[in-house]
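Tutorial, part two.
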Amino acid sequence: MKLGIMQPYFFPYIGHFQLIKHVDMWVVFDDVQYIRHGWINRNRILHPSEGWQYIGFPVSKKSYKQEIKNVKISNGMDWRKKILNQLQHYKNKAICYETTMDIINDSIKLETDNISELNMNIMKNVCEYLDIDTRFIISSQASFNYDSIENAGDWALEISSQLGANEYINPINGKQLFSEEKFNNSGIKLSFFLPNNIEYNQIGLRDFISHLSIIDTMMFCSKDEIKDMLNEYEVI
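Running the prediction step on this input gives:
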């Protein structure tokens, strides 16, 4: 079994879904501290006039120093309506606007104050659209034993071992965190994921803006085009 582990990101970029497609099981890792101004409750889309802008949802301020699993979405404001309004400018230029808006609406309408549940629902809906059948679990609901954790890279080793994975794949930009010797001693192959540079026609823009939310990719690219993009990577 090939395993991937990542914190619950909000409408992450296409590279995230490339890795999800490559593995057999995906762990939504919410047993670590929430980091403010990260990708847990926000991401980037095109700005209507120039560059990019953030979209996202608010969290309770008292949650900032808690683990992700204990951070609560602040539902006091209508953040869903705000997001949908921020996406309106795609309407006149994005060829897949209606389809994408349907997926977004269905993804964010989930009534919950739990970040992991919301973001997993988002990822599952996008994966269903792209015919990705990877299995999802939330780490805080799996009763993992973390007693042997000493270093940052040990989290993945312990989870992989307890799930019976024979290969763990991590984005290559985190390579320095992991001990290949520890993985080898546990009989688990350690691999690293390197996505290719992907560009598509962001209609009306001269210069491509990379690493935007999967929302932007779905707006401008057909389902078949994105499914082809999902295979543009290397595992080393």
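The mean pLDDT is 95. In part three we will examine how such features are distributed along the chain.
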